[in-house]
Amino acid sequence: MSQRIKLIWDFKGPNASQTAAHHIIHLEEFSRSEKLENTLCGLENVHDMHHIAYLVVEKKHMDDLRERLKPNRGQLYQEK
């Protein structure tokens, strides 16, 4: 499998959990509509007031998706 990148959106504040969870719905819809393969959407709890939503994509899509989706940051995705 090719290298994959984790695009990350940070949500902070008292509603961070709900906002991040809602954002994942849109990321999943986007992945389906764009017919992206080998994607993974998820939610991580950094702490009570900081949650992240993420989308893992193949590295070849990184530049295009970074421009279109405007994530806060990204990192190399390591399979667990």
Question: In brief, what are we looking at here?
Answer:
This protein has 80 residues and is of the alpha+beta class. The chain contains two helices and four strands.
Structure, described:
By secondary structure, the chain is of the alpha+beta class. The chain has one domain (4-76): Alpha-Beta Plaits, CATH 3.30.70. It is built from 2 helices and 4 strands; from the N terminus they run βαββαβ. Strands 2-3-1-4 form a 4-stranded antiparallel β-sheet. Strand 2 (40-47) and strand 3 form a beta hairpin. The radius of gyration is 12 Å and the shape is globular. It starts with a strand and ends with a strand. The mean pLDDT is 96.
Task: Please tell me how large the radius of gyration is.
Answer: 12 Å
What's the architecture, going by CATH? 2-Layer Sandwich
Query: N-to-C SSE series?
Result: EHEEHE
Mean pLDDT: 96
Q: What structural category characterises the helix and strand content?
A: alpha+beta
Main sheet attributes: strand count, strand direction, barrel closure: 4 strands, antiparallel
In helices, the fraction of residues equals 25-40%
Instruction: Give the low-pLDDT segments.
Output: none
Strand order of the largest sheet: 2-3-1-4
Outline type:
globular
CATH topology: Alpha-Beta Plaits
The number of distinct helices, counting runs of at least 4 residues, comes to: 2
